[in-house]
Design a protein that fits this description.
This protein is an alpha+beta fold. The chain has a single domain, classed as START domain (Alpha-D-Glucose-1,6-Bisphosphate, Chain A, domain 4). Helices cover 18% and strands 39% of the residues. The radius of gyration is 14 Å and the shape is globular.
Length: 132
């Protein structure tokens, strides 16, 4: 839960409320978890990740959907998965934290992630203008 709290603090600083090293074969996500996790607003959940939080709320004229995930994969693998999905590069935000963001069809997509202990925590947020 400390990891999720750190991501909430991080997201708040950006103006949004939140709700192993790379192997030699490349950035293939781990697939050890058998339960599939549904993505949000067309953005896939990270393969093999465990969902620990999902929610929606309205704030400042926006409807916000959030998804919290955890994986044992390295942050580099998370970036390699989400950068092509969002057609954007990961940017460092604070020590050990990264964010990938882009806008599509009136929606703002943000994937924030960082390594906490032995796991990478991923916070996905989709901000939708009311009435869209």
């Amino acid at each position: 839960m400390k990891a999720w709290a750190a991501l909430i603090c991080f997201s708040t600083l950006l103006g949004c409320k939140a709700p192993s090293s790379l192997d030699s074969a490349g950035a293939t996500p781990s697939t050890t978890t058998v339960k599939a996790v549904a993505g949000i607003e067309g953005l896939d959940a990270y393969p093999g990740a465990t969902e620990f939080k999902r929610g929606e709320h309205d704030e400042g004229g926006f409807h916000i959907k959030e998804l919290g995930l955890s994986t044992k994969d390295a942050p580099e693998k998370v970036a390699a998965f989400y950068e092509p999905e969002l057609m954007a590069k990961a940017m460092p935000t604070t020590a050990g934290m990264f964010s990938i963001q882009n806008d599509f069809q009136g929606k703002h997509y943000e994937v924030s992630y960082g390594r906490f202990g032995g796991e990478t925590t991923i916070a996905i947020s989709v901000k939708i203008a009311d009435g869209k």
